[in-house]
Amino acid sequence: LKLAWLFVGSATLQSILAIWQFSRQSVFSSKWLGMAAQSPEILGASVVENSFGRWLRAYGSLPHPNILAGFLVIGLLILIGLFLNHELRIKNHEFKNKFFNNLIVKQFIIFVCYALLLSALFFTFSRGAWIGFLFGFLGLLFFGFKKNLRVSQLASLLAVTLITIIVLSSIFWPILSTRLMGAERLEIKSTEERITSYKEAAVLIKRDWHKGVGIGNYTLGIHNQVNPHLRSWAYQPVHNVYLLVFAELGIVGLIVWLLLIGTVFYRIIRFRVSEIRYKSWFFVFSSILGSIFVIFFFDHYFWTLHFGIMLFWLCLGLWSKQVSLL
Asked: Which residues contact 302 (CB under 8 A, 6 or more apart)?
């Protein structure tokens, strides 16, 4: 529980920074935080471009908005887990009334942090993370209903979620619609680049399906086997972890990777909600892993970047710890 609050505190600080960055349309540089300066007019910055101009996406202190989005998804699901844990304790009369142990204060803090994280996630404009969060959010709501929480007990969470999304969507609809419709110049270019990267991955997989090109050698493989004439910055990993694992580790590595993921789903399927009396953390971390597995289809940072790798294996380790407690 303490680790959950520490993670939420870190994510809240990132959210405040991200909201400030989007409102100022600027990312300041800092050698202490490892941040590079970003602004909408700088080529290479992650922006949403439409007829109204270029809009800088929120970075936080991380190297890309998509990475911040993945981090915030995990923080949001942990917050929902904290909320469900409190509601379950109330339902089972663990408190004489809702005022014991500063429960109202804790729930207020949860909702404030939740609104901040959800707003920051919105300002990343990361579509893959949005889909991943929706998957985990619905999973945790399902858990709440299975534990016989009343709709009235979940209403406050749903209200904060809907109000935040509706308000932000109505205010920033021109930017949001650009990301959702994908009809503007940069969105079309991004889609074309991803399609090209899928084709490049298919070429590598076809040539080295049995042993792969080696872990961390994907971009080198593209240079050596597909197209040696691209600019250096154009060599990017495919935005799909499953294809990336297949290309780098071959069929055996892919099977081992899928077995790892399959083991997670197998334990979730075997899990009975009634097995855990009040603690909901097994299902919380199961939902987090499910969200990450969804994000695997849209990005590569959980496999290729140091922060993403640590974050994924931390979540898997915490899930494994909950399994050992069943």
From this structure: 70, 241, 292, 295, 296, 308, 309, 311, 312
DSSP 243-299: HHHHHHHHHHHHHHHHHHHHHHHHHHHH--GGGSSS--HHHHHHHHHHHHHHHTTT-
Distance, CA of 95 to CA of 106 (rounded, Å): 14
- pLDDT tens, residue by residue, 33-45: 889 999 999 888 9
d(CA 82, CA 100) in angstroms, rounded, equals: 16
The DSSP line for 78-94 is HHHHHHHHHHHHHHTT-
pTM for the structure as a whole: 0.92
In the chain, % of residues over pLDDT 70: 89
Work out the burial of residue 303: count CB atoms within 10 Å of its CB; fewer than 13 is exposed, 13-18 middle, 19 or more buried: buried
Percent of the chain with pLDDT strictly greater than 90? 66
Confidence grade of residue 91 (pLDDT, cut at 50, 70, 90) = low
Residues linked to residue 48 through DSSP beta bridges, in sequence order = 55
Alpha carbon distance, N-terminus to C-terminus of the chain: 17
Structure tokens at 297: 């289809």
pLDDT per residue over 206-227, tens digit each?
999 999 999 999 999 999 998 8
**In the chain, what are the domain boundaries?**
2-181, 185-252
